[in-house]
Amino acid sequence: MTVFDVVVEEARPWVVMELVEGRSLRQEIRRGGPLPPDRAARIGRQLLGALGAAHAVGILHRDVKPGNVLLADDGRTVLTDFGIAVIEGEATLTREGGVLGSPAYIAPERMRGGRARPESDLWALGATLYAAVEGRTPFHRDDPVAVFGAVLTEEPDPPLRAGPLRPVLDGLLQKDPVRRMPAGVVEALLLVAGGDDPDPSWPVPGRPSIPVPARVPSPPAVPPAAPAPPAVLRSEGLPEPLFTPWRVGGVLVYVGIALVVAGALVVMFMAR
Questions:
Q1: Is 63 assigned a catalytic role?
Q2: Start-to-end CA span in the chain (Å)
Q3: pTM above threshold 0.70
């Protein structure tokens, strides 16, 4: 979301931002019910990109949830209210002078008093996507205290409508932030779940870019060689033909000489 200005009035800062025509993800779920997994995956991709851009400059959202996700009429998904968590009718944990967040979307390490970290926002993203496809939070309880206990000690209810998003939800809702699915893996799985093919050259904050090897040009085509004249084959080990043309001619000459000599002898014999 674009920020145009910050104005201080009566010791209070007012942030002037763009007007996004659309509705929140929370309103969309209430109005139309759970989202199809592929649509939720495409929304998750855009949220992951927004979180990655914020994390890259050291900013943590701390309160990712459906009420802070705007679905713009132009197709964009906009993440709003960094650090603010006020949703009417939802159990909200607050303190004077600040807002800590909505218990159903707060990562376990934050509930234990640990510092917020990028993995905490990824937990909240997982809880948000769970709510998008299931229509309720992964640790739905009647009051905030029960939600606290469920987040800290229980596993989320198995999702029934997640389909290809199930690995993403399981990976992001790991209670140990060290074991939580990293952003690069989440991105690849969301691409597949959303019906797209992963592009290894697309950089994502928190994941090293994967170099794409340059295309090696194919060698020029070599024209086929002219066909060689047919070879005369001779069987190995076989004798040559008995009568070749020159041999036949020689035999005829010898026969002719023999006939002449024989005729001369006959004439001499008769002359006696």
A1: yes
A2: 144
A3: no
pLDDT tens figures, 134-151: 999 999 888 888 888 889
User: H or E element: which one contains 94?
Assistant: strand 93-95
Mean pLDDT of the chain: 77
Length of the chain: 272
Highest mean predicted confidence (pLDDT) among 82-91, 177-186, 248-257? 177-186
118: part of which helix (H) or strand (E)?
helix 118-134
Residue 171 burial (C-beta neighbours within 10 Å; 0-12, 13-18, 19+):
middle
What residue type is assigned to position 2 of the chain?
A: T
Reading the block at residue 157, the tokens are: 């209810």
> Burial of 272 by CB count in 10 Å (0-12 exposed, 13-18 middle, 19+ buried)?
exposed
Candidate list 5, 38, 63, 143, residue with the active-site label: 63
Contact call for residues 116 and 51 (beta carbons, < 8 A):
no
Question: What's the rounded Cα separation, in Å, for the pair 154 and 33?
Answer: 26
108 with 115: CB under 8 angstroms?
Answer: no
Of the options 3.30.70.920, 3.30.110.70, 1.10.287.1770, 1.10.510.10, the CATH number for the domain spanning 3-193 = 1.10.510.10
Distance set, CA 266 to CA 73, 254, 256, 261, 271 (Å): 130, 19, 16, 9, 9
